[in-house]
Amino acid sequence: MAPLCACGCGEQIQLKPQHRCPTKGIPRYIQGHHPNPLRRFYAAVRARGLLLTRDVCRKLRISETQYHRLEAAGVFPEPQRWGRLPRRRMRVFASGDVAKLRAALRKEPQGRRQMP
């Protein structure tokens, strides 16, 4: 009988000839079933009622690239950041921040900027 996946899904791991090799061994997880720390981080952020950059951009109807450009230009204020080193700390937003960002977006002049 083949071992079960360690993720708890109940599926059996399909044993292959290379799993008999002492250097490889039998895997603990089916491919793609291993724990993902980034997914747990996103779930923890959303469990607290916070939004990620992607969520905010969808509500503002702008792309993430446009958001980063506006933030670098000083149109949007610096958001709160979560995370631990060595990974870059991610931007997180409260639901009330969307209204503030929308107001800042309205103040930004539309169209191309003129070169001095």
Helices, strands, pairings?
Elements: H1 37-47, E1 51-52, H2 53-60, H3 64-73, E2 80-82, E3 90-93, H4 97-107
Antiparallel strand pairs: 1-3, 2-3
Task: Report on the architecture of this protein.
The protein has 4 helices and 3 strands, in the order αβααββα. The chain has 116 residues and is mainly alpha-helical. The chain has 2 domains: 34 residues, no CATH class; 72 residues, Multidrug-efflux Transporter Regulator, Chain: A, Domain 2 (Orthogonal Bundle), CATH 1.10.1660. A 3-stranded antiparallel sheet has the order 1-3-2. A hairpin with a 7-residue loop joins strand 2 and strand 3. The relative contact order is 0.12. The model has no long low-confidence stretch (mean pLDDT 85).
Shape: elongated
User: Any idea of the CATH class of the largest domain?
Assistant: Mainly Alpha
**Strand content bin:** 5-15%
CATH architecture of the largest domain: Orthogonal Bundle
**End-to-end distance:** 75 Å
The name of the CATH topology of the largest domain is Multidrug-efflux Transporter Regulator, Chain: A, Domain 2
How are the strands of the largest sheet arranged?
A: 1-3-2
Low-confidence stretches: none
Query: What's the average pLDDT?
Result: 85
Radius of gyration: 22 Å
Please report the number of helical segments: 4
Q: What is the number of E strands? A: 3
Helical percent range?
25-40%
**Tally of distinct domains:** 2
Main sheet summary:
3 strands, antiparallel
Provide the succession of SSEs.
Answer: HEHHEEH
- The secondary structure category is mainly alpha
Oligomer status: single chain
